[in-house]
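Changelog-adjacent note: as of this version, every example in the card shows the full chain rather than a window. The one below runs 182 residues end to end.
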Amino acid sequence: MNIKKTNAIILFNQKEIRRAWDAEKEIWYFSVIDIVEILTGSPRPRKYWNALKTKLTQEGSELSQKMGQLKLRSSDGKYYLTDVADTETLLRIIQSIPSPNAEPLKIWLARVGYERIEETQDPELAIDRVMKTYLQKGYSKEWINQRLKSIEVRKELTDEWQERGMKEGLEYAILTNEITHA
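Full-length structure tokens:
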């Protein structure tokens, strides 16, 4: 795991969540304890998490196998091994927390899951979602249409490369990156 030396802190409801970037996998790892503390309001989030982890393991959950430990900076300024999880695993943990504070996130997860299922049945819904998201971010309709066209052209080109035997790897990534910038 190639963890970037500079760990970042983000805020959620004015509370800090420690995280670390894995440059090799290009994903964030978040402190599970910080999330548990925010969602449960527990004065002893580490104890709460240990009990929840034990319960999940007894129920046959494989979440603990998907987690890791990283040294994250604590409030005393020292670095301690801390349970961390990627976004997908963290969302599964949140689903397991019986707390009113976790309920809004669970509702959001259910809604997003439902929307993605609907998009598999009608892919045009995904395009509509992309359009709406870009518009909310302030992009013009012309920019959005150009972006969607460039994605289509890139997809056609990469499909052609694959048909001709080009394997995904560094050169493939460089070429697709150049297309994106162009």
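Structural remarks: Residues 2 and 26 are 9 Å apart (CA to CA).
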